[in-house]
């Protein structure tokens, strides 16, 4: 069963709901340094329902982030969430991102679908890197940041006994929901200005 809605209207609704969810997550992460599980679950469910019930006017629907929008269907939405989860899980394993950040990006994947999730990850990581550099410049703690970066990378080496936890050993924990929101906005602006996705699938 599909919602009786034009693809353009569905896209505006979907982008608006995603923007609202990300704004609430960024606000919570900025104030409390946590993203509530209830908000993540709500974001995931909205993304799934949007793609399951939205208009599918084309044989190969191109999703929310397209000049030719169309719902992806239930299966592609679930796959998008799984792809987004898998892409960000290594950063959680390195303790560079919190579980809430990874879960939030997986929920975004339910909106975007699998191919767009990979491209979104590139934009989010770029936004996170730029925010970290800006913070490093403002705080003038370049040495600490470099030492922590080397410690995080060093613990991946075989036989390493060191343990680094970005949640407790950094001078400042960036609310990564902000980076996710900025990355999603940058990805949308890039595509809607007529550019092709960075990676094609």
Which descriptors would you attach to this protein?
68% helix
Largest sheet: none
Shape: elongated
- The secondary-structure element order is HHHHHHHH
Distance between termini?
Answer: 28 Å
Q: Which runs of at least 5 residues are low in confidence (pLDDT < 50)?
A: 167-172
What portion of residues belong to β-strands? Answer: under 5%
Helix/strand layout:
Layout lengths: L6 H26 L4 H17 L20 H20 L5 H14 L1 H26 L2 H13 L11 H4 L6 H17 L9
Q: Would you give an account of this structure?
A:
Residues 167-172 have low confidence and may be disordered. The chain has helices at 7-32, 37-53, 74-93, 99-112, 114-139, 142-154, 166-169, 176-192. The longest helix is centred in the N-terminal third of the chain and has 26 residues, at 7-32. Helix 1 (7-32) packs antiparallel against helix 2 (37-53) and helix 3 (74-93) packs parallel to helix 5. The protein is mainly α. The protein has one domain (7-192). The chain has eight helices and no strands.
Entry summary:
By secondary structure, the protein is an all-alpha fold.
